[in-house]
Write a structure and sequence with these properties.
The protein is an alpha+beta fold. The protein is built from 6 helices and 7 strands. The strands form 2 sheets. Strands 1-2-5-6-7 form a 5-stranded antiparallel beta sheet, with helices on one face. Strands 3-4 form a two-stranded antiparallel sheet. The longest helix has 18 residues. GO terms for molecular function: intramolecular lyase activity.
Length: about 180
């Protein structure tokens, strides 16, 4: 009898689940003047630039549109893991943060993200809070307010965190757009 082994090499596929839109108050450029005349590519790799962007006291709004269906629980677990890891790295993961993060995860738990569903994150200019909203075809929008400043900061860092942000294309786009505004 002759036995043989067949090898199959499997490559990891990168699947796009969401498209991310970032909306910033135009006042943000006033807080980023030290990066005036820097190229987008330079800014893209400069985490201090994104740190300044995140902490700038201007309104920020993120619009996340679902491209490929995903369970809300899957999205919630990704968010939870990223936020918890960032909090732990800065030694800011205490009971209050755990409770606030758990509420966010529960908010997403029962949702099903159909194609074209929208998740929005609103970060007011003068408050360390966030409002997260979810809308899916024809259903009423559901919202949650996150009042733990540390959790809110790490959600911002998940999306806007420079080299550690969740989406390299979002970071590159932001860097190039802001570079153009800072060149004027």
């Amino acid at each position: 009898m002759n036995y043989s082994i067949t090898d199959i090499e499997i490559h990891f596929l990168q699947i796009k689940f969401t498209a991310i839109g970032v909306y910033l108050d135009s006042e943000v450029v006033k807080h980023l003047q030290q990066w005036k005349r820097k190229q987008g590519k330079e800014l893209e790799e400069d985490d201090d630039f994104f740190e300044a962007l995140i902490s700038a006291p201007v309104e920020k709004f993120l619009r996340v549109v679902v491209i490929k269906e995903i369970k809300g629980s899957q999205y919630g677990v990704q968010l939870e893991s990223a936020v918890r890891d960032r909090l732990a790295a800065e030694d800011k993961y205490e009971e209050e943060e755990e409770a606030a993060l758990e509420k966010v995860v529960e908010f997403f738990q029962s949702k099903y993200f159909k194609k074209d569903s929208v998740i929005t994150y609103h970060f007011p200019a003068t408050s360390p809070t966030a409002e997260i909203a979810f809308t899916s075809e024809g259903k009423e929008e559901s919202k949650i307010k996150v009042e733990n400043g540390n959790v809110v900061e790490m959600i911002k860092k998940w999306y806007l965190g420079g080299t550690r942000g969740v989406s390299a294309t979002t970071i590159a786009s932001l860097a190039n757009t802001l570079s153009a505004h800072l060149s004027n």
